[in-house]
Write a structure and sequence with these properties.
Low-confidence stretches of chain A: 5-22, 172-208
Distance between the termini of chain B: 50 Å
Strand content of chain B: over 45%
CATH superfamily of the largest domain in chain B: YVTN repeat-like/Quinoprotein amine dehydrogenase
CATH architecture of one domain in chain A: Sandwich
CATH architecture of the largest domain in chain B: 7 Propeller
Structural class of chain B: mainly beta
Strand order of the largest sheet of chain A: 3-2-5-8-9-11-12-15-16
Oligomer: heterodimer
């Protein structure tokens, strides 16, 4: 009897761990500078194989990407992206994934495990992409669907369904100031010295006697 | 020639204030011999960048590099810039960009131009430039592409592709106006023995962007580069393609191109879309072609100062005289832009500014159905390139490029921006993304501005 109870308990534990494994967020690969902000409230570098807890924010730098496994789904976090993992849980036969894309771009391949439905949402400050399919790209503004169907909802609650090959977006132009400021402070402005280029110009005919000068008064616009 | 000197003074009323601004320049003034912009290193602070037009041409002291003066100024009071040693004779105009330099990055916030003036020998001529606000708050650059000679830029589902002679760059915009333009991927065309001539918008599903090369046209698929290397396998005639465009017409793809002294294309049944070896191409010689734009079904061409449209039927029955629909403008047409929507519009870049009219492409026929109108602000300027935003069917964002000016039309207003004083390098191309961002490729890299509007 004790042996049977022990076996049953083991099976239950195994089932529980399997269910948990299906809803775990894990870093598959990392390229370049990728950091997370977790419960410790400090940015730490990300390594492949690392697990991500709920509430974790992941940030990618220039030319940096991360590939995340969210249960059975795969999410590519593109460069200069900041993304928070709000929810990843399996309940009553549905895997609910809730991500907040502060800034940047992601590419998702949402895969359903056998017997589980997917409720996969990516929100941005100006819109939401809700997945009823398997593949899309989203930057918080523009959505492109390459597989399945994605419901795009803007701030006013207007929705549209996008099929494979379709793209669309909302005029949610303003991004959160704090995200912009954070990006600016994180990455700075790279030096770029504009020049005049290699324009070949024709020197005008220098006719007339002598030279003179010009004084140009440059007046800022009113309100500057 | 006597050295050209520049004296920059703070625009101050009264000697007391004047002394403050003299302090900015330590010695009280600066006097420089300019043959270009190199050698100056204002790292921080507001500067005014001044170029001169002389008899309508960018003034140079020689060596092919434009004369430019860049002086530190006060953001609120402006500046007084004295340029001496200018030859008398030409009619001049000053072009000015004005803005902060932060860590060596010049970010013009205002721009302006002076009235025309002439130099009095031995004397000093006074003129003024009132700065204006551009339709954008900041210019974004690509640090990855800085100082690179970018030949063209094109839209690929909102992400822009930039083309060097033998290299492509897939860029991205992270949504923040404070971030540089990023580069995700690169593609080496030299490995495929290809040279980029330009980028065109396909606007048909995954054929969103066409790469025009010395050896035909290649599409980008929606997922990365995805070249179909057999795309040119049946292309007949010269393969040096300069521009291209596509329209989906009743289950057929009407693919047009412009090449050196000729045009052509292919009428592709939808089921053969991925089988280029089954396509049949036409290619005919047309002298004097200068530009091409794709409408909802017709292709529009500028040739020898006139314009004409060709319907998809031309691609199966390539008789120019039978299908060609001519149109003209009050001045010779050099460039074209088309917006298919409600209403459909054709924009004609002429030697005397931009003219436009609504049109009707229904039944795959073309006709200008209203009298030509004009973008008044462009009058007198020879227009070389036109970029029409097609973000929405009623979009009214456009950009026109002349030799020294970038015109941006947005929100019903037209901004005439002196290119050299505001943007880096010599412009090579302009393109809108899938929103209201205008990208400008040039000999010094890639820049972008967000102009609002729709």
């Amino acid at each position: 009897m004790m042996k049977k109870i022990g076996t049953l308990l083991a099976i239950l534990l195994l089932a529980g761990s399997l269910a948990f494994a299906q809803t775990q967020a894990r870093v598959r690969t990392v390229t370049g500078k990728v950091e997370i902000l977790g419960a410790q409230q400090a940015w730490v570098p990300v390594k492949a194989g690392m697990s991500l807890g709920l509430g974790t924010t992941i940030s990618t730098g220039f030319n940096s990407t991360a590939v995340l496994e969210l249960g059975s789904s795969v999410l590519q976090v593109k460069p200069l992206t900041r993304l928070r993992l709000n929810e990843l849980v399996a309940r009553e036969g549905t895997v609910t994934t809730d991500l907040f894309l502060q800034v940047g771009k992601i590419r998702a391949e949402v895969k359903s495990a056998e017997g589980l439905a997917q409720d996969f949402k990516v929100k941005s400050p100006i819109s939401t992409a809700a997945v009823r399919g398997t593949g899309f790209e989203y930057d918080g503004y523009e959505l492109y669907v390459f597989e399945g169907t994605v419901i795009y909802t803007n701030l006013t609650g207007q929705s549209r369904s996008y099929a494979p090959g379709e793209q669309g977006g909302s005029d949610g132009y303003d991004s959160p100031p704090d995200a912009e400021e954070q990006l600016l402070s994180d990455f700075g402005v790279n030096p770029y010295t504009p020049g005049a280029g290699n324009e070949t110009v024709t020197v005008p005919p220098l006719t007339g006697p002598g030279t003179g000068s010009v004084t140009i008064v440059i007046e800022p616009p009113i309100g500057a | 020639m006597k050295k050209i000197g520049v004296l920059a003074l703070g625009l101050a009323i009264g000697l007391g204030l004047m002394s403050c601004y003299l302090g900015v320049f330590k010695s009280g003034s600066i006097s420089m011999d300019f043959s270009g912009l190199s050698g100056r290193a204002i790292q921080n602070g507001y500067v005014a960048r001044v170029y001169l037009l002389a008899d309508g041409l960018l003034f140079s002291t020689g060596g092919g590099t434009p004369f430019a003066a860049e002086v530190e100024v006060d953001q609120y009071l402006g500046a007084k810039v004295k340029i001496d040693g200018l030859p008398a004779g030409p009619v001049y105009k000053a072009l000015v960009g004005f803005g902060p330099v932060t860590d060596g990055v010049f970010s013009p916030e205002y721009y302006g131009e002076s009235p025309r003036f002439q130099i009095t020998p031995g004397g000093d001529t006074a003129t003024s430039v009132s700065m204006q606000y551009p339709p954008f708050s900041i210019i974004r650059y690509s640090t990855d592409l800085m100082s690179r000679n970018i030949k063209a830029v094109g839209n690929n589902f909102g992400n822009m592709i930039a083309a060097e002679d033998t290299r492509l760059y897939y860029t991205y915009f992270d949504g923040s106006n404070f971030s540089p333009i990023g580069v995700n991927e690169q593609y080496d065309l030299a490995a495929d023995s290809l040279r980029a001539n330009g980028l065109s918008t396909g606007d048909v599903g995954s054929w969103n962007t066409w790469l025009n090369t010395n050896n035909g046209i290649f599409p980008f698929t929606t997922d990365g580069w995805g070249f179909q290397t057999d795309f040119n396998s049946t292309l007949s005639g010269p393969r040096d393609i300069l521009q291209s465009g596509t329209a989906l017409v009743g289950g057929y793809y009407a693919l047009f191109f412009r090449r050196t002294s000729g045009l052509g294309g292919s009428y592709i049944v939808g089921t053969n879309r991925n089988s280029p070896t089954l396509w049949t191409w036409v290619s005919v010689d047309v002298p004097g072609l200068t530009d091409m734009a794709m409408g909802g079904s017709n292709a529009f061409f500028a040739a020898s100062g006139a314009g004409f449209a060709l319907p998809p039927a031309f691609l199966t029955d390539p008789v120019m005289a039978k299908h060609r629909k001519n149109f003209s403008a009050p001045a010779p047409i050099q460039a074209l832009g088309v917006r298919s929507g409600a209403p459909s519009m054709v924009y004609m870049g002429t030697t005397d500014g931009v003219w436009f009219a609504s049109m009707d492409e229904t039944n795959y026929e073309f006709a200008v159905d209203t009298p030509l109108d004009r973008i008044l602000e462009t009058a007198g300027e020879p227009i070389e390139k036109i970029a029409v935003s097609t973000w929405t069917s009623s979009s009214d964002n456009q950009a026109y490029l002349s030799r020294y000016w970038l015109f941006i039309k947005t929100g019903g207003s037209v901004y005439k921006i002196p290119f050299y004083a505001v943007f880096p390098g010599k412009p090579t191309g302009i393109a809108w993304d899938s929103s209201h961002n205008l990208y400008i490729s040039g000999t010094e890299g890639l820049a972008a501005v967000s102009v609002g509007g729709s």
